[in-house]
Each structure stands twice: as C-alpha cells, then as structure tokens.
Design brief:
This protein is of the alpha+beta class and 428 residues long. The chain has 15 helices and 16 strands. The strands form 3 sheets. Strands 1-5-6-11-10-9-7-8 form an 8-stranded mixed sheet. A 5-stranded mixed sheet has the order 13-12-14-15-16, with helices on both faces. A hairpin with a 5-residue loop joins strand 3 and strand 4. Helix 1 packs antiparallel against helix 5 and helix 1 crosses helix 11. It is elongated and about 90 Å long. Bound molecules: adenosine-5'-triphosphate and magnesium ion.
Length: 428
C-alpha cells in the first residue's frame, strides 16, 4: 500500500532559503533599532500554562474563545502554544523576580500560534517581534515606542503605512463606559450576531472589535469611549499627542480602536497599510498598567507592541523593497588530482584572509564545464580556477563570470589581494 504523501500543517509555513533574505533584513533592522533605543533581548518559552492566557488576554476574546493551541501534556499539565508574547514576558519578569521597583525594556521574537482561518497574511504559526517596557508610567515612553516603530518603517523604506491611536482610559472609566455600551447594544439586541450576543454578557467592549461587516453600522453609531475618559487618562493622551506632534510622527485618533485583548489601559495604537488587502494590520500595541498586578506581580505600569514579520515581508515584497539575494563572492573551480587535494585547505586560508567574503568551493568533483555551470548558477561574480598546471607554477586563475573580460593569473602568495582587486573590477 502506498504511503500517503507528507503534508505540512495548514497555516504553518516553511520559510525557504530563497525567501530568507527579506526575513533577515527585517530582523536585523529591528534588532539594530531596538539596541539603539536601549532594549534588551529576552528569550521566553513558546509554551505556557493555558491559564496564563485566560487570565491575561481575557475570556471573551477571539484568541481565548477559539484560536488557542491548547493541549494536556503527558504529565497532565494544561499548556498552550503562545498566541502572543506579552503574557509570557509578564509571567517571566514576575517568576524571575525582576520587578521590585526595577524597570526593564525588553524585546523578543519568535513564532506565535493561533488557530485562525488560513489566508494570505493570516497564518496559524506566524512570527512577531514583540517589544515591552516595564515600570514606565508614560506618556514619554508611549511616544518613544511609537517613534521607534515609525523609524522601523522608515529604515525598511516602507511607506503606505498609517498610525492610529486611541485611549481606553482606566479600568474604572471603562467600566462606566461598558455600562453605557451594554445599554446601547441591549436596545439593539436583535441586530447582534451570535458572537456579539455572547459578548454582551461577558465583555461588551469586545463587540466593538467585531470584524463582521453586518455589525459595522451598529458599531459605528455606538457611544464613544473617548467621551468618557477620566481626567488623568485624558491628560496622558493629550501629552502623548503633543509628544508625537513634537516628534513629527503623523497619526490619526481613532476613537473606535479598542484592540482584541482585554488587558489594555489608556494608550493603544495600530499601524495599518493599504497595500495588503484585508490583512492590513502590521503592528499593534498599547499600555497595560493593570496586567502585572492582576497576574500576581507588584503593581507596575507597562506598555508594548508587536509587529507581524510575515505581513511586513509581504509589504516589502508588494512595495519592491526586498534586499538583493545573497550570492557568493568567489566560486572555486577545481581541476586535477593535486588541486583536489589542496583546494579545501586553500579555501580555508582564503576565508582566514578575507573575513566576511563568501567563498564557495566546488564540492563533489565534475568536469570543467559542469563546475563552471555551477559557478554561474551560484551568482558569484568571480571564479577562482585551481588547476594542477597553475599549482605547479605557484599561481591560480581568476575569471570574472558576469562580464566579458578575460582570465588573469595571480600568485598564490598574493591571492587574497588579487581576489579583492578582481572583485572590485568585476563589480565595476
Ligand atoms: P488582526 O486584526 O489582523 O487579526 P490582531 O489584532 O489579532 O491582528 P495582534 O494580536 O495585535 O493582531 O498582533 C500584532 C501583529 O501580529 C498584527 O498586527 C499582525 O501583523 C500580526 N498577526 C496577528 N495575527 C496574525 C496571523 N494569524 N498571521 C500573521 N500575522 C498575524
Ligand atoms: Mg486577530
């Protein structure tokens, strides 16, 4: 009986070497910027206790209601593949005793897991870069984090992005607002979809986050949270707007922006693009001043954001901003028995002498023509030809592969300098 073909898991993608360049470009740019702003990398597990996400993200959210990869392990623990990074990082600073009045600026990157409808820009394993500042009450840090994200788009040469901000106020202000909202939606209960009806009891704010187009008109006419902000949140939000104005970061105040997680307080923000169709959110975050205490740590204000790497990859591709593919600098073509014996050692010496250069030696033999074909396909601008005849004379040949200029010879004792010169010439 034939074995069934192997399949990959729906929504979980391989990133092939031919695509890795753009991923590494995004990751390296983020890593460099985060270091420049004083953020340190934090590596936390991909798996946490399921309860952590119920207690942080909230019961009446899309993520907890229907998207989590939860399982019982063979020891009987209820575990979940992290759907986002904030909860795990908060858990980590608490369990490592890192708070005690201390402040931390950290970031992490890695896969997140949500059982969503698989489509372009929406996957079941996706990757985020997640940034968190613990112990800062803001609004200065709010503005700086947003400026950091704005700089990221600038350095990635991404335009067609738009920043929306809002304030969700304090939990008390939200409670008062929630009551008004419940009254409003209850008056229109017959127009609610099933999700929204359930949320009316659990968390009416979540209804505002609905993606159901049939709910749009009703949501648009609902009372606004911004009209019910407490004075301190109002001042915080005004200071944030002034700081962004001062920094020259354009934004739009969107009083409907509530975000899909329960833990946010005061500042929330989201970057969207018009270049990706339906999956238009590339980066989002906000302040969560109550979460750390709620999870058993000492009361500590905090703010963070995350961007989705896959969507930024798509965006760079869409905008034609992907970096050129990496190619070797030199491909070493080997001819003859003595050359075969000496080629690997010679390539090693070249790697010592030319750190950072990509030197690819022909492996597995092959006649001259076949080796040149491989050299050509590698994309290298230069072939180094190592043959017994040349070795006997203490030289090697250098041949540009991307232009018509001819082959030259170079003393083996002078090979590193010869290669550098030939590369400069070959690249014009
Ligand atoms: P969306 O509104 O598109 O569902 P979200 O509000 O659920 O996004 P967040 O939880 O704020 O997203 O996560 C931050 C970022 O992670 C998003 O802006 C997006 O770029 C990315 N992201 C979220 N979910 C996915 C997914 N299923 N596949 C790919 N990227 C995702
Ligand atoms: Mg979502």
């Amino acid at each position: 009986m034939a074995t069934p073909p192997l399949r990959r898991v729906t929504g979980m993608n391989d990133v092939l070497p031919e695509k890795i360049q753009v991923w590494q470009h995004i990751e390296a740019t983020a890593r460099r910027l985060l270091a420049a702003y004083g953020y340190e990398e934090f590596r936390a597990p991909v798996v946490e206790h399921t309860e952590l996400f119920h207690r942080s993200i909230g019961e009446f959210t899309d993520i907890v209601e229907k998207e989590m990869y939860s399982f019982v392990d063979i020891g009987g623990d209820r575990l979940t593949l992290r759907p986002e990074a904030t909860a795990g990082l908060v858990r980590a600073v608490i369990t490592n005793g890192m708070l005690r009045g201390a402040r931390h600026k950290v970031w992490c990157t890695g896969p997140m897991f949500r059982h969503e409808k698989n489509q372009e820009g929406r996957y079941r394993q996706f990757h985020q870069v997640d940034v968190e500042a613990f112990g800062f009450a803001g609004p200065d840090v709010d503005a700086e984090l947003i400026a950091l994200s704005a700089r990221l788009w600038r350095e990635l040469k991404v335009d067609r992005v738009r920043l929306e901000i809002n304030s969700l106020g304090t939990p008390e202000a939200r409670r008062a607002y929630r009551e008004r909202l419940v009254a409003y939606f209850r008056a229109h209960e017959s127009s609610l979809d099933a999700d929204s009806r359930r949320r009316l009891e659990g968390n009416a704010l979540r209804i505002l986050d609905s993606k159901n187009p049939d709910m749009r008109a009703l949501i648009d006419a609902a009372p606004l949270l911004t009209e019910h902000l407490d004075a301190e949140s109002e001042a915080h939000f005004a200071a944030l707007r002034a700081a962004l104005d001062g920094l020259g970061v354009p934004y739009l105040v969107n009083p409907r922006l509530v975000r899909g997680l329960d833990y946010y307080t005061r500042t929330v923000f989201e970057w969207t693009t018009d270049a990706l169709g339906a999956q238009n959110a590339i980066c989002a975050g906000g302040r969560y001043d109550g979460l750390i205490e709620q999870l058993g740590g000492e009361a500590t204000p905090a703010i963070g954001f995350a961007f989705g790497i896959e969507r930024v990859v798509l965006l760079l591709e869409r905008l034609g901003r992907t970096p050129a593919p990496a190619v070797p600098d030199v491909y070493v073509v080997i001819q003859g028995a003595r050359a075969e014996r000496e080629a690997l050692a010679l390539a090693e010496r070249l790697r010592d002498a030319l750190p950072g250069r990509r030197i690819v030696a022909n492996l597995g033999g092959g006649n001259f023509k076949a080796q040149f074909r491989r050299a050509d396909r590698s994309g290298a601008p230069l072939a180094l030809i190592l043959g017994d005849d040349e070795l006997a004379r203490g030289v090697a040949a250098l041949k540009p592969l991307r232009q018509e200029s001819g082959q030259t010879e170079c003393m083996l004792t002078d090979l590193a300098a010869g290669i550098e010169a030939a590369l400069t010439a070959a690249r014009g």
